[in-house]
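Lab notes, practical 5.
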Amino acid sequence: RHVVQDTGEGIAPDLLPFVFDRFYRIDGARTHDPASPPRTGLGLAIVKSIVELHGGTISVTSEVGRGTTFTVDLPPVVSALDSLGQPHSVRFGRGGDSPSKDANVV
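Output from the prediction step:
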C-alpha cells in the first residue's frame, strides 16, 4: 500500500468521482500561473491506468480545507523463487553438437 497525502485546500465531495477522468480539472485548477507548465487534466487518469494495468487499485479521499489522500494498492510481486519454491536452471542451446549453456533463474 502506498499513500500520498497533502494538506492543501482539499476537493469537494461532489467532485471526487471525476478526478480520475481524462481531461478533468477541478475549477480552481483552470487558472494557474502562466509561467508554470500547462495543465491537461491527464495526470491522475494516467496514474489510474498504470495502477490498473499492474492489477492494483487507486482511491481518493478528501476533506475541503484539510487536504487529500490518494491510496494505491498493488498486488504482491511473485518472483520465480516464490512461484517455484526454489531456484531452477534453464538450458539454452540448439541441441545436437551445438554447445549449450545453463542459466539459473532466481
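Observations recorded by the TA: The two ends are 25 Å apart (CA to CA). Residues 43-53 form the longest helix (11 residues).
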